[in-house]
Structures are given as C-alpha cells and as structure tokens.
Structure prediction request, 71 residues.
Amino acid sequence: MRQLNQSCQHFDHSLHLLSLEFNQVSTALSALTNMLEQSNLDTLECEQVYCLLEPFAHRLQQTTMQMQELA
Prediction:
C-alpha cells in the first residue's frame, strides 16, 4: 500500500509539472498570436513565422514525449 501511495504521489507530481509546462506553452503561443495579429506584421515571410513557431513546436514535442513516458 505504501508503494502504491508513493507511485500515486509521483504520478500527481508529474501531472502537475506537465500542466505547468502546457500552461507556459499556451501562454507563449497566445503572446505569439497577439504579436502576429498586429497590423505592422502583415508582411512576415514564411521563414520568419517558422523561426517564431519552431521553439514552441519543439517544446510541445518534448512535453508530449514526457506524457507518453508516464502512460
């Protein structure tokens, strides 16, 4: 029973960390969306948009891998 309790605590802690990670990514993506919606950024080229989005895609991929390890 003690081992089960420890496993549950570890799982809860991991879920909390993943939740924080997703909240950070969500906040960053919201800020990026707001930035892209500004009228003076209408001329952004594909490469510039990619450079803005690539770090978020990488971070989401890492978080997804962490979730899969927990499953």
Remarks:
- The radius of gyration is 17 Å.
- The chain has one domain: 2-70.
- Helices lie at 2-36, 46-70.
- The chain has two helices and no strands.
